[in-house]
Each structure stands twice: as structure tokens, then as C-alpha cells.
Amino acid sequence: MNKVILSGNLTRAPELRYSINGLAVAKFGIAVKRPLSKNDDADFFHVVVVGKLAEFCGRYFSKGKRAFIEGRLQSSTYTDKSGVKHYSVDVIAENIEFGDSKKNPSDTPQNKTVSEAAASVPDYYDEPPNTYVESDNYGGADEEDDISLPF
User: Fold this and answer.
1) d(CA 67, CA 44)
2) From the CB of residue 131, how many other CB atoms can be counted at a distance below 10 Å?
3) DSSP per position, 110-123
């Protein structure tokens, strides 16, 4: 079983991009406090969200917002231009919920759950997006690797 549940604060605003196929992909970081830590230590994770939920995150989440994330871990490797092999582990989010109370009603969609609000995000695939991911291999994993990416 590969399941992860995190509660923490975004370390940066979601970076929303689109694959060549028009699939929305959002990436951001999250800081999660370690339990029972006397020094307020935290662990930092990279989060990847795809589809309408990615568009929703790009629209309604920002740096510092608290979020509850449910998903799975995915490891990948890639070799950079100088020949150095890099390894990474990302959280592939399948569900995200707001962790903050509503301070400003215009910050979040009213009277909707995150899933309902994500479903109501307009479909922008009819127009070519302005920002493209360089390839469908978002994250730079080699095609030779046996790691399957979700997009």
C-alpha cells in the first residue's frame, strides 16, 4: 500500500503549468511540523497535482496556506545536462482540503467542498495555454527508467 496523508503549510505558491497534451500540472512545497519536536522542526515535501484539482490549487492556494493532502509517494530519477543522476520523491496528491478557516470570503469558493469546486473550474483546453511543460516527462525522469509517471 502506498498512501500518505499530510497536514502543513505551503512553502511556495503553486506553480501551474500545462503539458503539451493540455493537462494541468501544479507543483508546490509543503512544510509539515514534526510531532513532539521541541525546536519546531519540520519536514519539507514536494507535491504534484494534476488535472482540474491542479487548476483549483493554482487559483485558490498560496504560500503560507494550510492544507490537508492525501495521496501517494512516487520516486523518480533523471540525469541532468552535466551527467549527474538525481533522485527525488514527490507526493502525488489525489485529494486536497483547506486547512485554514475562511478569513476572507473571496479567498475560497463559497459553500463548496474542494472536490466540488475543482469540478467547477472552467475547462481551458480549447485555447492553447501560455505556459507549457517542456515535455510530458514532468520532473525530468529518463524514459529508460521503469518508473511510470501519472501523466
Assistant:
1) 13
2) 9
3) TT--HHHHHHTS--
| pTM (2 d.p.) | 0.66
Q: What is the DSSP string of 7-65?
A: EEEESS--EEEE-TT--EEEEEEEEEEPTT-TT--EEEEEEEEETHHHHHHHHH--TT-
> In 3D, which of 149, 131, 148, 150 has the Cα closest to residue 53?
150
Query: What are the chain's domains?
Result: 4-119 (2.40.50.140)
Distance (Å, rounded) from C-alpha 41 to C-alpha 43? 7
What pLDDT, in 10s, does the model give residues 43-62? Answer: 999 999 999 999 999 999 99
Name the grid cell of 89: 520523491
Distances (CA, A) of 30 to 22, 52, 68: 25, 20, 10
